[in-house]
Amino acid sequence: MNFRSDNEADAHPAIIEAVSKAFRAGPVHSYGADPWTQKVEHRLREIFEKPDLCAYPVATGTAANVLAIASCCPAWGAVYCHPASHIAVDEANAPQFFTGGAQLVPIDGPAGKIDRRKLEEALAQPVYGVVHHPQPAVVSVTQASECGAAYAPEEIAAISTAARRHGLKVHVDGARFANALAFVGCSPAELSWKAGVDVLSLGATKNGALGAEIVIFFESAAATEFEFRRKRGGHLFSKMRLLSSQLDAYFSDSLWLDNARHANQMARRLVAGLTPLPGISLLYPVDANEIFVVLPARMHDALQAAGAQYHPWPSDRPGERAFRLVTAFDTQPAEIDRFLAIAKSSV
Fold first, then answer.
1. Which of 74, 73, 55 is nearest to 64 (CA)?
2. Parallel, antiparallel, or unpaired: how do β-strands 311-313 and 322-326 relate?
3. How far apart are CA 100 and CA 69, in angstroms?
4. Using CB atoms within 10 A of its CB, is residue 138 exposed (0-12), middle (13-18) or buried (19+)?
5. What residue spans of the chain are helical by DSSP H?
6. In the chain, fewer beta carbons within 10 Å around the N or the C end?
7. Are 281 and 291 in contact (CB under 8 A)?
8. Strands 135-142 and 103-106, bridge-based pairing
9. Angle (nearest 5°) at CA 151 between 147 and 156
10. What is the DSSP string of 227-252?
11. What would you measure as the largest C-alpha separation in the chain, in angstroms?
């Protein structure tokens, strides 16, 4: 009953086999000139309905986020993001380091999502061209949010419109983009470039990969600097097929969406069993595969004694003990049912 994080999940067998095959294929060109890297980019052009899309594999979500943002933001720039976003909380100042000193500007909003009106107010401040102030450059959106909420296409479009009005680029931290897409139910294009997104950090590691992410620029002209930044940042792999073969399998036969749908379904199964129990309340709506829930002390103690694993989480309401539970592509219904049986027996 491990619900600590989808980072702790196994890798999907199809992805493991794809990497094995890539390394049994004999010598191939290095640094991304291999057939797998080219195939992934062509497939993403089809998936996102964008013939001039440019895609660059990297090994970690941090690299994907900060290298993408740095490509859109000068050292004196400002990056607008939610205060709970991964780039603000969990990247150890990597965005500031890779941009050369850009400032992160927090824009709050419910359930980890940027409030469009607050963003518009921040972008309306008279700082443009004033040398004493950081210059607005990028809006970074987390999809799904750090509170498990998914932006609808119209919400992304509203943020993009506000950004465009002032000449800013729009970046999406899509570590759980597949989970958000599975929830929203639209096309990848509708949830990205058609809604005004310039660059997407599309995650695979949390959704079945061994360790692979990919940065997607929807206009080739915007990617001019990225190859140099990737090299300088230590993410231009000589054996790029190690990453690209994972992504090739990930995007083949809708594996990425199948994995995300399963993780989301397991989250809903867990929520459906928990919410009728006394003393249970959710901190946020459950759109994707993360659940933020208040558990009664007796229930929490019983679950811990039985070996259930999940993280404590801060609650805004005094005296409550809240926790985060995350399901994954390989979460089994039996795990959910055992967890629920223990929870019910403690009531």
1. 55
2. antiparallel
3. 11
4. buried
5. 13-22, 35-47, 61-70, 86-89, 94-99, 116-123, 153-165, 177-184, 226-232, 241-250, 255-274, 297-305, 333-345
6. C
7. no
8. unpaired
9. 135
10. HHHHHHTT---TTTHHHHHHHHHHTG
11. 63
- Digit-by-digit pLDDT tens for the chain (347 residues) are 999 999 999 999 999 999 999 989 889 999 999 999 999 999 999 999 999 999 999 999 999 999 999 999 999 999 999 999 999 999 999 999 999 999 999 999 999 999 999 999 999 999 999 999 999 999 999 999 999 999 999 999 999 999 999 999 999 999 999 999 999 999 999 999 999 999 999 999 999 999 999 999 999 888 889 999 999 999 999 999 999 999 999 999 999 999 999 999 999 999 999 999 999 999 999 999 999 999 999 999 999 999 999 999 988 777 788 999 999 999 999 999 999 999 999 88
Structure tokens given for 84: 């709970």
Is 0.85 topped by the overall pTM?
A: yes
Beta carbons of 116 and 158 less than 8 angstroms apart? yes
Amino acid letter, residue 235:
H
Domains of the chain: 12-253 (3.40.640.10), 256-345 (3.90.1150.10)
Amino acid making up residue 318: P
Nearest to 201 by CA among 96, 69, 113: 69
Amino acid (one-letter) located at 280 = I
The first and second tokens of residue 97, run together, are 């380091």
- Which two structure tokens, joined as six digits, stand for 45? 């052009």
Instruction: Indicate the DSSP class of residue 289.
Output: S
DSSP structural state of residue 149: P
Question: Residue 54 is encoded by which pair of tokens?
Answer: 């440019």
Contact predicate 122/80, CB 8 Å = yes
